[in-house]
Amino acid sequence: MVIEKPARVVPLDPRTEGHARRVAPHDEAWRAPLGAEMHKAVSGRLQLVSLDHVRARLGESWPRHRALVQATTLKILRQYLAGQAIFEPVNDTTFAVLFEAGDTRQARAICLMILRAVTRILLGEDDPLEESAVRTIVAAADGTLSLRTDEPAAGPGAADAPPHSSAESALPASLPAELLKLASLVPDDLDFLYRPIWDTKRSAITTYLCQAVSVGDGDEPVVDYAVLPGGVQSSVVREVDLRAAKRIADDLGKIVSSGRRVFVSTTVHCRTLEDRESRQAYVDTFAPLSEETRRLLAFEIVGFDDTTSESRRHISLSAVKSLGRVVVARLPIDVSTLASFQRSGFDAVGVYLDERNRDERRLMKLFERFASMASRIGLRTFVHGMRSSSLATIAMAAGFDHVDGEVVALSADRIGAVMRFQLADLYGAGEYADIP
Predict the structure, then answer these.
(1) CA-atom Rg of the chain in angstroms
(2) How deeply is 277 buried, as exposed, middle or buried, from its count of CB atoms within 10 A (0-12, 13-18, 19+)?
(3) For an engineered disulfide with 148, which of 17, 136, 291, 369 has Cβ 3.0 to 4.6 Å away?
(4) DSSP letters for 247-301
């Protein structure tokens, strides 16, 4: 009989909290109290990767090389983890890596592979790694958290035990709340649905918009970047964008293979496209698609407003311009001017209506103003999120070219077909009909 070596568990380092509070975003949602449910979300998925061995080898020269070490580590993390995990620095030599799935063995193996790659690049050789170089945050049955410093034993019951207590358990003082909040920012039930978009000029549904969706604890699904309750943090937005890109690349390839022709649109945040490493990972996802497939693809860049500089717009636009048929910009509905977006080369501009924009009298004026500004400079327009027939009619009358929302058609888990859709269909008097 082989006796498995038990995994060694050590207390959390009390120094971690102070470091994390200096590097974490100052968002109230990241400082909220955490309980048993959060511990359950973290257990086995969150790895702490240490570069202490690199700092020890550099000795007195560490202060001079610290920035290079951190930049190199971030680059390697992005290369290895695109679409698999999100990560944040904890302190000068420690990075937190939160994996999408809870396979602790695989997560640990990936982190060790990353550490070896970083070590080879920085030190020019493979240094033997201490077992504490990669540590896994695990939760016991009572909800308390600790760090596992070596690989868990195999077999039933040997995996990291999730917490079973339904009571709110106190967060250990030594564990940074900001670090654990990473687990809640990308929902476990994150999925992607396709929303039909009505082309009001052609009286047809011609395009399907891929949107992130999460149900969470509520009855109503949460869509778009609202699935991120902690705010639009760059590393988490990048994760959502990369997952959406992979989903669309797979689904659109199947559509083309089947002989169907329908346009597909995807949102991507300007922060993802402004960062060199995440931009490259995003572009690489669509690069293998054929020219025929790309002609069916539209990119909707999110995050612009009146204060966005021309150089930032150019970086985002140029990153995806050659990857699809059109590139459009989503803007605040009360944006002061659209001329700069026309000069930059965008094909269309539009808005997204959330719960804060439901006053139909106010929206009527804003719709007319927005559509009029766009029409004068030759830009097409779109509006997402219509929940009433009257509001959709107002948007159409104002001159919007594309309208969508649950009043037009509900989202589905697959790309649909091109269909006739007329104004009467908004009021139930019309009839859907596939366009051959």
Answers:
(1) 24
(2) middle
(3) 136
(4) HHHHHHHHHHHTT---EEEEEEEHHHHHSHHHHHHHHHHHTTS-HHHHTTEEEEE
Residues 268-326: pLDDT tens digits? 999 889 888 889 889 999 989 999 999 999 999 998 988 888 899 999 999 999 999 99
Distance CA 322, CA 283 (A): 10
Q: Report the distance separating Cα 9 and Cα 136, nearest Å.
A: 9
User: Token pair of 13, please?
Assistant: 């380092």
β-strand partners of 380: 348
For the chain, the structural domain boundaries read 9-183, 191-434
CB atoms within 10 A of CB 269: 21
Strand 419-420 relative to strand 204-214, pairing: antiparallel
Q: What is the pLDDT of residues 126-166, one digit of tens each?
A: 666 676 788 887 766 665 666 666 554 444 343 443 333 32
Q: Which residue do the tokens 């990153």 mark?
A: 319
- Going by their DSSP bridges, the two strands 46-50 and 94-99 should be labelled as antiparallel
Q: SS3 for 425?
A: helix
Residue 430 has pLDDT above 70, yes or no: no
What CATH homologous superfamily does 191-434 map to? EAL domain (3.20.20.450)
Supply the pTM of this predicted model.
0.62
Q: Which amino acid is at 343?
A: R
Angle at 45 between CA 41 and CA 47, to 5 degrees: 130
The tokens for 256 are: 């083309």
Residues in the chain: 436
Q: Are 244 and 212 in contact, with CB atoms under 8 Å apart? A: yes
| Orientation of helix 276-286 relative to helix 62-81, angle to 10° | 20
Which is it for strands 326-330 and 94-99: parallel, antiparallel or unpaired? unpaired
DSSP 123-164: HSS-PPPPGGGEEEEEE-TTS-EEEE-SPPPPSTT-SPPPP-
Quote the tokens at residue 136: 């896994």
Could you give the CA distance from residue 68 to residue 78 in angstroms, rounded to a whole number?
Answer: 15
